[in-house]
Design brief:
- The chain is built from 3 helices and 5 strands, in the order ααβββββα.
- It has about 90 residues and is of the alpha+beta class.
- The chain folds into 2 domains: about 40 residues; about 50 residues, HU Protein, Chain A (Irregular), CATH 4.10.520.
């Protein structure tokens, strides 16, 4: 499912226009992004939690040459599924 499919599904399910559904989805994504940028967690009860994690610097290999390369440390987004989502998928 891509963003267009999600917009269409939300619009039908809630009986609103696609433009309104797109604004709602964009607002949700923007809020989660801003929250993560501040270093905070963003939870959707039952669905899951978005949080930041630190990845340490490490040495990798160039797949073409096999030469070692340094991969810098960085922050990455982590998603942890909630109880309801886990139970639904089982």
């Amino acid at each position: 499912m891509n963003k267009g499919d999600l917009i269409e599904y939300v619009a039908k399910d809630v009986k609103i226009t696609k433009v309104q559904a797109a604004k709602a989805i964009d607002s949700l994504v923007e809020h989660i992004t801003k929250t993560l940028k501040k270093g905070e967690r963003s939870s959707l009860v039952g669905f899951g939690t978005f949080s930041l994690s630190r990845r340490k610097a490490r040495t990798g290999r160039n797949p073409q040459t096999g030469a070692p390369i340094k991969i810098p440390a960085k922050r990455v987004v982590k998603f942890t599924a909630g109880k309801v989502l886990k139970a639904t998928i089982k």
